[in-house]
What we know:
Elements lengths: L3 E6 L6 H13 L5 E8 L9 H9 L10 E4 H9 L3 H18 L2 E5 L11 H12 L3 E6 L5 H17 L4 E9 L4 H11 L5 E6 L2 H4 L3 H8 L2 E4 L10 E4 L4 H4 L7 E6 L3 H12 L6 E7 L6 H8 L7 E3 L4 H9 L10 H14 L2 H9 L8 H14 L3 E4 L5 H12 L4 E5 L2 H11 L8 E4 L7 H12 L6 H8 L2 H10 L5 E4 L5 H12 L9 E7 L4 E5 L9 H17 L5 E5 L10 H16 L4 E6 L1 H5 L1 H7 L11 E3 L3 H15 L2 E8 L5 E3 L6 H15 L3
Parallel strand pairs: 1-4, 1-5, 2-3, 2-4, 5-6, 6-7, 9-10, 10-11, 11-12, 13-14, 13-16, 14-15, 16-23, 18-21, 19-20, 19-21
Antiparallel strand pairs: 8-12, 17-18, 17-22
Helix pairs in contact: 1-14, 6-7, 16-28, 17-28, 19-20, 21-22, 23-24
Amino acid sequence: MNKGLYIATLEPHSGKSLISLGLMRALLGKTVKVGYFRPIINDKKPGAKDNHIETILKYFDLPLKYEDSFAFTRSEVTQKRNEGKSGEILDTIIRKYKKLEESFDFVLVEGSDFSGEGSIFEFDENVTIAKNLGLPVIIVASGRGKTKEGLMGSLQMAYQTFSNKDVRVLAMVSNKIELENLTIATNGMREFLPDEVAVFAIPLVDSLANPTLKEIVQVLDGKILFGEEYLDNQSGSFNVGAMQLRNYLKHLKNESLVITPGDRADIILGALQANISSNYPRISGIILTGGLLPEDSIIQLIEGLSQIVPIISVDDGTFNVTNRVGAIKSNIYADSTQKIETSVSTFEKYISIDPLIERFVNFQPAGITPRMFQYSLVKRAQQEKKHIVLPEGTDDRILTAAARLLDMDLVDLTVLGDGEAILKRIKKLALPMDFEKLNIINPTTSDQFEDYVKTFYELRKHKNINMDIARDLMSDVSYYGTMMIYKGHADGMVSGAAHTTQHTIRPALQFIKTKPGVSVVSSVFFMCLEDRVSVFGDCAINPNPTAEELAEICISSAESSKAFGIDPKIAMLSYSSGSSGKGEDVDRVREATEIVKKKRPDLKIEGPIQYDAAVDLTVGQSKLPGSEVAGQASVLIFPDLNTGNNTYKAVQRETGALAIGPMLQGLNKPVNDLSRGCTVDDIFNTVILTAIQAQGI
């Protein structure tokens, strides 16, 4: 079940607050615990809080701390981007959202406001954030001041952008539409949107667009002389009292804001009298400009009136004040009860909420993004901490990764090697290592050494292994680390930074052995591409697998895919697609595909199929029309090691993809191999994979 919904807009002042308020009221009527989250908020003065968040939290009395309801301010995002740390932005947003998702039944996510520095990037940012949170989207746009063609063009562009990134658009809302044009707006959206996208049009509501006297006072930094209790009055229009009173009274409109110099007693008193007269419209307030105050006698007269509207004094001149008032865009505040209720009632009148809620509750994300995948790995490792052994304890990359893993408290670690040499390397690298958390073992001087030697001898004596050979082999860090796993003194091992693949996995094959029913140990890489995670297998172990071995690699890879949250759609790769190709190599792939279909009819599989047809929807459907795998494969099985290894490295280098792995499949307990060119990130990610495998996936 989906647990979140993203509200996105194309511009500032679109009226998305109305949508947020209406949805929050509707959701709270359906479920008890609803959270609220804003990935990026506008910058605020010290001590000030984001108005959107304050309004939602206070009005609906949500059990949520303010600081937990957003990730970054706009200036923080700009600074991160300038420092080349864009990845940290997404990581933090995902982490904070997921924390709310764990605590609430549903989370309403409101996108950014398109104001301030960096607003040019905000539309793409909202697309990326929604994609990485795996959330469906409601798009809101304002029709105020736009032609039909202009509004529909921007909405169509927005829909295509979200859809091209595999972000599901559930609904589209044209807001602030003239009442007589509502049907035109809905029909216009229906022309370019598929039927499954709901469309709504909401009229312009003057009472929501008009600023309150409280907002005007804040913008003008005014001093309240009278009527503080009426600051929620809304200004429907404004006009300047610069003419004689008899002429000015003709220009008053309902809820007019009167702007006049502070020494114009005639205008002030005339406007106040008109306010209580049944023959004239009510006014919302009076702004006195130029820093001028009425004389004491006028003040005394005002104080004696039975009805007083807010009267505000400002230092600025009439011309500037008029321009500034005209530029004010109204907001909704936590204490703006009337505006909130108007927003909710307007939402309920024009949005069919029950079918919409059913759509996003039943929504399933199209796939998992690289950032979300990496986040899920860390969270799963934290759920059940495992003990991993790293045999190559004097390698700087191993030690650097170990420091990071221990700092995040993801695993318990043992490193193998000479203790004094390891400590010297740690100090030279200035790693922030908690030495109490790091277990260092020198195999030949350890308390377990003789027991390990005897155990290995008993396991391998039928292979002509004597005690001397057993002692020599157990002095090797790969054998010692593997024996730790066999004896239950560690849960998994990661090696290969300084050793060959054979050196790493040979001990595991000798006495860890393969799982029941598995005859082939194989490997997969989790390829974190720009907008998806694909599983590549086998790219590290088997040079020329037979059809039976290829089928087993496929089934193991599908199980690994599911275990890590990726729906397996399997492409058995070859140099031709479908039944067109001939030759020994393509026939082997075709045979392997048939074996998988017989053994596991539940799996979605296509083969043989070319790489482009497997990953490109247009190519895939042209070559294999109707296939549920072609163009959308998530598990790609290569026909041999040469093809697989070269392809994963080419994809990694040319696209900048992160390749996590290889992760070995088929062993009774997890042992994973690193490449000798591995980075600290490679080691970090492989240890986490190993820990998750050790949890019994």
